Amino acid sequence: MVDISTSLLSVKKEKIIDTVYKLEDANTNYFHIDVMDGEFVENDTHDIMLEYCEYLNNITKIPLDIHLMVKDVKNFVDSYLIFNPNIITFHCEACKNKEEVMNLINYIKEKGRRVGISIKPETDVKEILEFLPYVHVVLVMTVEPGKGGQELILPTIEKIKELKYPFMLKPVSEGSSIGMYKVNNPEEMAECFDKSAKYGQDVMVEEFIQGKGLTVGVLEDGDKMFATEIIEFRTKTEWYDYEAKYTAGMTEFIIPAELSEEMTKKVKQIAVDAFKACDCRGVSRVDFMVADDKAYVLEINTSPGMTDLSDLPAQSNAMGIDYDTLVQIILNGAGLNK
C-alpha cells in the first residue's frame, strides 16, 4: 500500500483552508509539515507551520506528518506534540553522535508518536542502516532541505535502493550465528528483531550481500602483527547459519581461499587494518564477503573459537602454526609471557 503525505510548505496563508479541503477530497493520507529553524537550514518556517497546525487541528482529522529540519530537535518535538501528530521525522545530521540519534528515537516513541529518520542528499544511507529496526519511516531527501521548488537530484534515487530488503540481523553479544536472521520484508523485520533482541539489546543491521564468504585470523606475536591464511566457505544453506557451521557436510571449506593474488593481499591487509583500527589485542578473526570484486568487512570476532571444527586453528595450521604454538601466541599476546 502507498500512502501520500502532502506538503503544505508552498501553500499561501490565505488559501490554506480551501487547500486543505481540496486535499481531503483528493484522499491524501497525511499533511506533511515542513518545519525549518533558520539554523539547520537557511529558511525559518516555524511560526507559519505552528499556525497551519492549529488550523488543521480544528478543521480536519487527517493525521499530521511533522518533518523537523532543525538543529534543536528535542525542543521542536515538544513544540509540535500538542498537535497530536502521527509521525515526527528528524534529521540524523542534526545529531552530534549515534547515541543522540537513539535517544531522540526513544523520546519520540515514549511520547506515543511514530518516528522517522531523514538524511540529506549528500549523506550516505549507511549512516542510518543500524537505526532501521527502531523507526517507522525513512525519509531520503531528493532535494536540499530548507527550500521549496527545487529540481530533483537524480542520484539520490539510488539511495532508496540501498534501503531495500533483505537485511541481516545479528545480536552484537552473540556468536555462532545464534539469534541471526535474514529479513526479507518489514513484517519479518519486526518479528526477527524481537527474536534477536532476546540475546542482547544491541542488534546489528547489515546489508545482505550475496557473494563469497571468507574469514581470516589476525595474530599479534610480539611486535609482529599478521594475517593467517584465508578460509573460503561454501554452504548448502542460504547463508552461513548455525546449521551450516555445526552440521557435518553442510559447508565446504577451502584453504587457502580461491581468490586472485591481488584480492588475497587486499583481504589480509584489510583484516590487519581493521584489527588495528578497533584496537584489538592478541588475536581476532575478521569475517568478509567478497562481491563484485569488492571486499566487505562483516565483523571482527575478538574471541574466536578454538575447537577442532573452529576456523582459526585451521587457518593457522595452513600456514605452519600448530595448535600448541597458536595457543602460546595467544597467551603471549595477552601478556602472560611477561
Q: Span between N and C termini?
A: 65 Å
Number of helices: 10
Strand ordering within the main sheet: 1-2-3-4-5-6
Strand count, sense and barrel status of the largest sheet are: 6 strands, parallel
Poorly predicted regions: none
Number of β-strand runs: 14
Structural class: alpha/beta
Helix content: 25-40%
Rg from Cα: 25 Å
Residue share in β-strands: 25-35%
- What is the residue-mean pLDDT, rounded to a whole number? 88
Net shape = elongated
The string of secondary-structure elements, in order, is: EHEHEHEHEEHEEHEEEHEHEEHH
Description of the structure:
The structure is a single chain. The chain is of the alpha/beta class and 338 residues long. The protein contains 10 helices and 14 strands. Strands 1-2-3-4-5-6 form a 6-stranded parallel sheet. Strand 4 (87-91), helix 4 (98-110) and strand 5 (114-119) form a beta-alpha-beta unit. The radius of gyration is 25 Å and the shape is elongated. The model has no long low-confidence stretch (mean pLDDT 88).
Q: Main attributes?
A:
338 residues; alpha/beta; six-stranded parallel sheet; five-stranded antiparallel sheet; 10 helices; elongated
Summary of the model, kept short:
With about 350 residues, this protein is of the alpha/beta class. The protein is about 30% helix and about 25% strand.
Describe the secondary structure blueprint for this structure.
Elements: E1 5-7, H1 16-25, E2 30-36, H2 46-59, E3 64-69, H3 73-81, E4 87-91, H4 98-110, E5 114-119, E6 137-140, H5 156-162, E7 167-171, E8 181-183, H6 186-197, E9 203-207, E10 212-221, E11 224-235, H7 242-246, E12 251-254, H8 261-277, E13 283-291, E14 294-301, H9 311-317, H10 323-333
Parallel strand pairs: 1-2, 2-3, 3-4, 4-5, 5-6
Antiparallel strand pairs: 7-8, 7-9, 10-11, 10-13, 11-12, 13-14
